[in-house]
Design brief:
The complex is a heterodimer of chains A (797) and B (215).
Chain A: H1 6-15, H2 21-28, E1 34-38, H3 45-57, E2 67-70, H4 74-90, E3 97-100, H5 106-114, E4 119-122, H6 124-131, H7 136-140, E5 145-148, H8 151-154, H9 158-173, E6 178-183, H10 189-196, E7 201-204, E8 212-215, H11 233-242, E9 245-249, H12 253-266, E10 273-276, H13 282-293, E11 299-302, E12 315-321, H14 327-334, E13 346-350, H15 354-368, H16 382-395, H17 400-407, H18 418-430, E14 444-447, E15 450-453, H19 458-464, E16 474-479, E17 487-492, H20 493-497, E18 504-507, E19 510-518, E20 521-526, H21 546-556, H22 566-578, E21 587-594, E22 597-603, H23 608-624, E23 629-634, E24 639-643, H24 656-668, H25 671-684, H26 705-715, H27 720-734, H28 736-746, E25 750-754, E26 772-773, H29 777-793
Helix pairs in contact in A: 2-3, 6-9, 15-21, 16-18, 16-19, 16-25, 23-24, 23-28, 25-27
Chain B: E1 3-7, E2 10-14, E3 20-22, E4 27-30, H1 37-43, H2 53-68, E5 72-75, H3 83-87, H4 91-101, E6 105-109, E7 123-125, E8 128-130, E9 133-135, E10 146-148, E11 153-157, E12 160-167, E13 171-173, E14 184-185, H5 189-194, E15 200-203, E16 209-212
Parallel strand pairs in B: 4-5, 5-6, 6-7, 9-10, 10-13, 11-14
Antiparallel strand pairs in B: 1-2, 2-3, 3-4, 8-9, 11-12, 12-13, 12-15, 15-16
Helix pairs in contact in B: 2-4
The chains are: A alpha/beta (797), B alpha/beta (215).
Chain lengths: 797, 215
């Protein structure tokens, strides 16, 4: 076994630290080609990952890059740099550690390429950039080890897929490269091991004691509907007061904002509480993070933006507001509390409404039963591969066969056929169109058997577009009439477009008044005490897992509900009285008029994505039947459709064969596919990210990716990007397999209830954001009506 | 379904496609075709967009010509994304365009994207006067009875975004007819300044719909 430098052992001893068994195990396995360490938060996971490197580098290492550390968060790299500094400086080791992210200065980045540190800390995006330079072989040829932190989180997205391709590239540049993956608890460790590489061994640390988790009891019952858990603020403030530091997690940014605003109004003791989410400006988030590290805050209201990252040892309570959607994520979130090893994490669930009481109960049962959920992600997406090919070409000429062999060593791409690879290469080189239009203007050309950029100057633009994170178009929000205008955060462009001067909305916990749009900035003024118009910027939405929805349907079948709070039990009884409760063996539909529109509720319990697909498919059928649907919204348990005419004969709408036959046709024109296409087009390099930045100058120069999608569908329906979009949508957003499972489960048992008004179970659906319009007869009728009304109002009719 | 507009004593059909038909003169007017846009972007080393926008635009034009039986066509400038794009047209697309031009009086007004003459049929003008109207690429403040393009106006109605015509007593601005064309919101200061109070926006789409111009 390799040993630590004596000075380091002495320093550990002086600090009174003893290494955990899994940390010693990592040292023992330092020669292994690939190791996946699964350990709970607070288990010294990151140190375990670095110990072999510290041991190998020793007291006076030779210059050159030895270890590359990749994390999903920029903030984490800075944090790790600080954490590594104490042992390295304490033991007086001559080891250089630097980070390299989008925030690193140009001079620093240039210097790092000429003279790399021993340990470089970075993100997948910055690594992509580094690998795209011509001098990548020189930088990386001595690399010994790559450490992937929070690999469980990376493995769930295209960022992880891209990272595996980059590691394959690194292994090509640095033969003998060893890999370490660091992960929280996951449901399928072997799958994650394969993701990291073919020869990965799994090392599972002691998972520690079970968490102390329960539902928060409040005096006021949760509301009938809605989200945000504001009713629970007094009880939550009380809990914050009883603990050192509390993290209050919300599922969406908008809910976090609303909650934070109301929390302050009721915070009579003026407890220092901050807010942290992805729509806030970098400066605002930094301020909160620094205050947190300094121990100046008692609580932070946050979203998934704090799921990972900085080790805040003093967090002793995690509160999850809103149903957790996914048991694994909940368990990982709970792990944020109490980073001390071998102490149970403490967590409270706060259902936001009565439906979520049931969902929280189902989640509690699952956590106690040690049941984790998760769906396999399938093979690596090809748009990421296209980008990888383009980035590889930026670094220098490549041989197609050699590149194919190399990508086969990346876990998610180990089954990519030569044919699929070549179609990606053709797309990158020529556009891959049936009409060969770009013979003269190919992006990549082949000379002496090797592929290279036709115009080397194109590399600069390609580098700007690297990465797989797709931003929604947002506008910055600033205070008007201030020196420079204080940045408050960002709102989605679509939301900004709905604002008229005088409207108020919430951002950064304060109510602001919309003053106007200047260039690409939303200008606001403070408007304390006003009732805000809700800011509808979306956080990430996850579908509730099959595990949870199954458990919920089982809870519904109980005669009575002694485990549930009385108010929720009464609510379920009321639903059973006026309509009925959904069960696993049939499909409950409710139909009722409301607010001048006809409504249909489909209680499929198939998860948000499948319920959304069901909405798309069913509204299309309704359009055929002339029922003039106008739009729909989907949650994890139901789809709500509104339109001009009621549904009376539902059975034909749910015929599986009809749904399946029409799937391709129907889905191709819809908004979900267009959204998926846009992301795919950006990642694969068809549209440039920087186009968004050019919106200012080239006002007519940009057009929506929807036009490209429609054009391709019409003239080149078999194009690679359309195939990628279809695959992706079917796998993720469309989730048709869950619809098939649903229809198989219910057979012919479709149960339509016609009711005079909204039912208790349907009410929450009316508060769902993310309403999807149906463009058809109904909307044409409405548009004509609206135009007529406007003309009449203007005296022009 | 088109929208009927009485403009300086003439009846004009504002087509749902974004074209303008003047039945008295049997003239079809279209603006900002931007043919060859994808080729131009590729030539400049940018992305390789689907190279089908020219045929998509020509197909629309073909349909409108067929429906209106127009004898004269006026293209209000920016017909090609640049001069080179006019020469770089795919052979099939070039033949199609030649077929549309054949037997018609076809006028290319100069735009800011395609200033020079092109080697394709038809005649070229900086602007054109056809009593009572003046046809030009960019509207000139203070002018009257003017029909122009350039701005690619678009507007929202009932949650939908559509390219639109803008009309007031003095002028008419056409939406961009080309497939790969973005738009400028009607409430943009340039358009608000140009159009008189009481101007109409006529939205294109499945049918032409008139609303007061959003400001």
């Amino acid at each position: 076994m390799i040993t630590l430098p004596p000075a380091l052992t002495t320093w550990f001893a002086a600090k009174g630290w003893t290494l955990h068994p899994h940390q010693l195990d990592m040292l023992a396995r330092s020669r292994n080609p690939s190791t996946l360490l699964i350990a709970p938060t607070g288990g010294g996971k990151t140190l375990a990952g670095f110990l072999p490197t510290l041991a190998e580098l020793g007291q006076n290492p030779p210059p050159g890059l030895h270890t590359l550390y990749v994390s999903p968060l920029k903030a984490l790299t800075a944090d790790i740099r600080r954490n590594l500094r104490s042992p390295i400086e304490g033991a007086d080791l001559d080891i250089r550690v630097e980070d390299r992210t989008g925030d690193t200065s140009y001079t620093q980045r240039r210097r790092q390429r000429v003279d790399p540190p021993h340990i470089l800390l970075t993100t997948p995006e910055s690594l992509a950039l580094l690998l795209s330079y011509e001098d990548a072989p020189r930088i990386f040829n001595g690399l010994q080890r790559v450490i992937v932190d929070e690999i469980h989180a990376l493995a769930e997205s295209k960022r992880g897929d891209q990272l595996t391709l980059q590691i394959a590239r690194l292994a090509g540049l640095a033969p003998g490269l060893r890999r370490i993956g660091l992960s929280a608890t996951v449901e399928n460790p072997p799958a994650l091991a394969r993701f990291l590489g073919a020869e990965t061994a799994i090392l599972a640390a002691d998972p520690g004691p079970d968490p102390d988790i329960s539902m928060l009891e409040t005096e006021a019952p949760p509301p009938w509907s809605g989200g945000g858990g504001r009713y629970a603020i007094p009880a939550i403030l009380n809990e914050i007061n009883c603990h050192r530091i509390t993290l209050v997690f919300h599922n969406t940014r908008a809910q976090a904002e609303l909650f934070f605003h109301d929390l302050w109004l009721q915070n009579s003791e003026s407890l220092p509480i901050g807010i942290h989410h992805g729509s806030l400006s970098r400066e605002q988030r930094d301020r909160v993070e620094q205050a947190m590290v300094a121990g100046a805050l008692r609580a932070v209201v946050c979203t998934g933006s704090l799921d990972l990252g900085i080790d805040w040892g003093d967090v002793d309570l995690v509160i999850q507001v809103g149903a957790p959607k996914n048991v694994k994520r909940l368990v990982q979130r709970i792990g944020r509390a109490n980073h001390r090893y071998n102490a149970p994490s403490k967590a409270l669930l706060v259902p936001a409404n009565r439906f979520e009481v049931v969902e929280c109960q189902a989640a509690l049962d699952a956590v106690r039963a040690h049941r984790l959920d998760g769906d396999p992600r399938g093979p690596g997406p090809l748009d990421v591969l296209c980008q990888h090919i383009l980035a590889t070409a930026c670094a220098g000429p490549f041989d197609a066969d050699a590149l194919h062999d190399e990508i086969l060593t990346a876990g998610p791409y180990s089954t990519v056929t030569k044919e699929a690879f070549l179609s990606c290469l053709d797309f990158v080189a020529t556009g891959g169109y049936a009409l060969k239009a770009y013979d003269r203007w190919q992006r990549l050309k082949q000379t002496h058997g090797k592929w290279h950029l036709r115009d080397p100057r194109a590399a600069a633009v390609i580098r700007q577009n690297l990465g797989t994170i797709i931003d929604i178009d947002t506008l910055k929000v600033r205070l008007r009439n201030q020196f420079g205008g204080t940045p408050l955060g960002e709102v989605e462009e679509d939301f900004a477009a709905t604002l008229t001067p005088g409207d108020t909305f919430l951002i950064g916990g304060q109510v602001v008044r919309y003053e106007g749009l200047r260039e690409l900035t939303v200008e606001v003024s403070r408007a304390p005490g006003r009732d805000p118009k809700v800011a509808v910027f979306n956080g990430t939405k996850f579908a509730t897992s099959t595990l949870l929805t199954d458990r919920i349907l089982q809870i519904f079948q109980q005669e009575s509900w002694p485990d549930l709070p009385a108010h929720t039990a009464r609510w379920l009884s009321l639903q059973r009285e006026v309509s009925r409760l959904p069960d696993p063996h049939s499909l409950l539909l409710e139909s009722f008029p409301h607010d001048g529109r006809e409504h249909l509720v489909i209680y499929g319990f198939a998860g948000r994505n499948a319920q959304q697909t069901l909405g798309l498919l069913i509204t299309k059928q309704m359009e055929f039947q002339g029922l003039a649907p106008l739009g729909f919204t989907a949650t994890d348990y139901a789809t709500l459709i509104w339109g001009l005419d009621p549904v009376t004969d539902p059975a034909p709408l749910f015929d599986l064969q009809t749904l399946r036959n029409g799937l391709d046709n129907w889905l191709s024109g819809n908004a979900v596919m267009k959204r998926t296409f846009r992301a795919t087009a950006i990642i694969s390099g068809l549209i440039e990210r920087s186009h968004q930045g050019r919106r200012k100058s080239g006002r007519q120069a940009t057009f929506s990716s929807d036009i490209l999608y429609d054009t391709l569908r019409r003239f080149d329906p078999d194009h690679l990007l359309l195939r990628i979009t279809r695959d992706e949508a079917l796998r993720g957003l469309i989730d048709f397999s869950r619809i098939e499972a649903l229809l198989a489960r219910i057979g012919p048992r479709i149960d339509l209830h016609r009711l005079p008004r909204v039912t208790p179970l349907a009410a929450p659906l009316f508060f769902e954001p993310g309403r999807i319009p149906v463009h058809g007869e109904g909307r044409d009728r409405l548009a004509s009506g609206a135009a007529k009304a406007l003309m009449e109002a203007a005296g022009l009719a | 379904m088109h929208h009927l507009l009485l403009h300086h004593g003439e009846t004009l059909h504002l087509l749902a496609s974004g074209g303008l038909y003047w039945p008295a003169r049997r003239v079809l007017v279209v603006a900002d075709l931007h043919l060859g846009k994808s080729e131009r972007l590729a030539r400049r080393g940018g992305a390789l967009l689907p190279p089908y926008e020219t045929r998509a635009t020509l197909a629309k034009l073909d349909t409108d010509l067929d429906a209106t039986r127009a004898a004269q066509v006026i293209c209000l400038g920016d017909s090609f994304d640049d001069d080179a794009a006019a020469h770089g047209l795919d052979e099939e697309d070039a033949l199609w365009l030649a077929r549309l031009i054949a037997g018609r009086d076809w006028i290319w007004i100069t735009g800011n994207h395609d200033p020079g003459p092109v080697s394709i049929g038809g005649s070229h003008r900086a602007e054109l006067a056809l009593c009572p109207f003046t046809f030009r690429h960019i509207a000139i403040p203070g002018e009257s009875a003017e029909i122009s393009g350039h701005y690619h106006p678009k507007a929202r109605l009932a949650g939908q975004t559509r390219p639109c015509f803008l009309a007031d007593a003095a002028r008419l601005i056409l939406p961009a007819y080309g497939t790969y064309t973005g738009g400028l919101w009607c409430d943009h200061p340039d358009l608000s300044r140009l159009m008189a109070p009481g101007a109409l926006a006529i939205l294109t789409g499945s049918r032409a719909l008139a609303i007061p111009m959003p400001r």
